[in-house]
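Below is a filled-in request sheet from our internal design queue. Each sheet records the structural input a requester submitted and the sequence that came back. We keep these sheets so that new team members can see what a complete request looks like end to end.

REQUESTER: design group, bay 2
PRIORITY: normal
MODE: inverse folding
CHAIN LENGTH: 626
BACKBONE (tokenized):
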């Protein structure tokens, strides 16, 4: 798991284990009473009903919720369930293997067809030169086409006419006969005229006249029509095979994704060790364990701090949202593709006229969140931790997606659809962590099946917007990891190793990107190379701006530390001087506002979820308001 900083106050049992969030830079603080271990045992199905009931109830209370992790373990002694899960996984594996085999065969067939297609396209080019030369009255172009076709005739047709007849075989007798044949035109059919024209013997003239007649007949009556017909047939086959390869890949995507989603607990070393050391006897007892971790959050507004409802977003420039200049350059390149896939991206699109056509473009503005910059230093310090946990490398587009994910949640809540209460426009959130383990035990020989649910631990916390965006970034990492897995299985992406600062780093790139890096002159072409050079030059121009920005950030951090130290000194004397304590955009008054206004709201929401679960389990003495 990613270790998130806590603060401004850290739980006692977490002190020294997690970083501390300085006051004003953010909040990640569970109220003391908002953490509890829940452990219940009931007849089969009881706990499952509570889980799904809670999952559907959370949105009605205004929460956005998502599943961030899951795995399953089934003892082989639990024969019915074990066979059901393994059969499903084995069936998917067999289907994937067969699909990959079909793709391999289809690609091989396509390559053979394309080989023949290239050859016949070349033949059609020769005929095109002749016809185009005649129309444009360009004898050189006609001659170029004729000589190319004559070379084909000599190599592929005349060479097989027999010994003593083929031009190649009688060349020792008349060394210039092939060159003489190349000089003939369609009108050269008289042996005597050919002999006079080329200054050769009459016997050679007879051979050349005969060969020229055969060539003209082959070219116009046989070869031309055959090439046209075969090119059309090959093109049909190539397009059909190319489409089938794409269809095979598309059909496999969901199967590969489904197979990846069936996460066996034994794939993870820490879970293997935990099961091995547990009191369960999976080798002797019919049992299963499945784990799901739900995250849920919604904003809340402390009294007199923020407006309750906001129905429209403000526009700010991406630099004010916290994006670096080089990240903005990357977004400018990638946004057109993103907009085609996600038309509701939180960017402002305008139009400009180029050569009489209106072309949409991004003007650099994005929709604002309650606190900007939303991509702040707290979030940036968490990015390497998330990258390490999931084994991915984030780009500016991924940061943008995580930020856009939160904006979409605000927007969807305002629509009034689906029974979800509108969100308040606030950077403070109630966050719920619900790690749920469900165990099923079958008591032999014909005993009941029991279901046990453990939530260790149900946690509620007050969190600020930057921490929530980090959670969104974890969901982006999961999506990115799944996409990369599918792409690698289908041969659309691969791994390229690089040495960065003495450390071997694996990058997952598309096949086009890999071959483009290895052989740019061949795969990219001159124009693409020039574009990349121009882009690299623009990025170099951006670096001084970015260095200046980073310098300002460092100076600001130093100033904040000095102000914070002075504020703490005054606070030790009993003087609360707000100017020296407010070193960030978030709440800094811990003793008064955080304890009195923020944490009670989180505690109430946590208590509501806890009571919902305990009510479903019919815990004595628990009275729910619903």
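RETURNED SEQUENCE:
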């Amino acid at each position: 798991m990613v270790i998130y900083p806590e603060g401004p106050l850290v739980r006692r049992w977490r002190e020294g284990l997690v970083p501390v969030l300085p006051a004003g830079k953010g909040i990640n603080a569970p109220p003391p009473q908002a953490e509890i271990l829940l452990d219940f045992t009931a007849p089969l199905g009881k706990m499952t009903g509570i889980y799904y009931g809670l999952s559907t109830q959370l949105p009605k209370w205004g929460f956005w919720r998502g599943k961030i992790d899951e795995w399953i373990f089934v003892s082989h002694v639990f024969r019915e369930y074990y066979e059901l899960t393994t059969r499903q996984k084995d069936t998917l594996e067999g289907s994937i293997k067969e699909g990959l085999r079909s793709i391999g065969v289809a690609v091989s067939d396509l390559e053979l067809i394309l080989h023949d297609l290239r050859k016949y396209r070349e033949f059609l080019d020769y005929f095109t030169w002749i016809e185009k030369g005649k129309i444009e009255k360009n004898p050189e172009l006609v001659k170029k086409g004729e000589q190319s076709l004559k070379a084909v005739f000599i190599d592929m047709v005349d060479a097989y006419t027999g010994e003593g007849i083929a031009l190649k075989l009688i060349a020792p007798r008349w060394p210039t006969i092939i060159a003489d044949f190349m000089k003939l035109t369609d009108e050269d059919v008289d042996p005597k005229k050919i002999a006079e024209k080329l200054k050769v013997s009459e016997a050679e003239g007879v051979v050349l006249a005969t060969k020229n007649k055969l060539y003209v007949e082959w070219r116009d009556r046989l070869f031309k029509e055959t090439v046209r017909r075969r090119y059309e047939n090959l093109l049909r086959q190539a397009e059909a095979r190319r489409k089938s390869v794409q269809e095979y890949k598309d059909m496999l995507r969901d199967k590969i994704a489904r197979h990846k989603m069936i996460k066996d607990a034994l794939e993870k070393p820490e879970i293997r060790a935990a099961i091995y050391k547990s009191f369960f006897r999976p080798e002797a007892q019919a049992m299963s364990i499945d784990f799901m971790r739900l995250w849920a959050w919604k904003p809340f507004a402390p009294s007199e701090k923020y407006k309750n409802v906001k129905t429209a977003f403000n526009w700010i420039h991406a630099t004010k949202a916290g994006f670096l200049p080089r990240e903005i350059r990357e977004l400018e390149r990638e946004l057109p593709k993103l907009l085609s896939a996600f038309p509701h991206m939180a960017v402002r699109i305008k139009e400009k006229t180029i050569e009489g056509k209106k072309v949409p473009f991004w003007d650099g503005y994005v929709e604002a969140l309650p606190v900007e910059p939303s991509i702040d230093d707290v979030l940036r310090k968490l990015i390497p931790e998330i990258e390490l946990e999931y084994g991915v490398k984030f780009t500016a587009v991924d940061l943008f997606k995580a930020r856009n994910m939160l904006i979409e949640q605000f927007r969807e809540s305002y629509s009034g659809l689906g029974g979800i209460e509108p969100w308040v426009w606030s950077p403070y959130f109630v966050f719920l962590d619900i790690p749920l383990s469900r165990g099923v035990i079958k008591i032999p020989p014909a005993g009941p099946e029991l279901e046990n649910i453990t939530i260790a631990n149900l946690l509620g916390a007050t969190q600020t917007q930057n921490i929530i965006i980090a959670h969104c970034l974890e969901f982006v990492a999961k999506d990115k990891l799944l996409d990369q897995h599918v792409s690698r299985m289908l041969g659309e992406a691969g791994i390229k190793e690089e040495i960065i600062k003495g450390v071997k780093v694996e990058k997952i790139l598309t096949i086009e990107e890999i071959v483009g890096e290895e052989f740019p002159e061949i795969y990219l072409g001159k124009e693409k190379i020039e574009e990349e050079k121009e882009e690299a030059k623009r990025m170099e121009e951006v670096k001084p701006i970015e260095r200046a920005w980073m310098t300002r950030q460092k100076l600001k951090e130093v100033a904040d530390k000095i102000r914070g130290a002075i504020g703490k000194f005054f606070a030790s004397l009993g003087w609360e001087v707000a100017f020296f304590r407010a070193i960030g955009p978030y709440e800094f008054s811990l003793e008064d506002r955080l304890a009195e206004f923020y944490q009670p709201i989180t505690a109430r929401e946590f208590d509501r979820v806890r009571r919902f679960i305990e009510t479903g389990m019919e815990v004595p003495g628990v009275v729910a308001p619903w």
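SHEET NOTES:
- Residues 202-261 form the longest helix (60 residues).
- The CA atoms of residues 39 and 454 lie 4 Å apart.
FILED BY: M.R.
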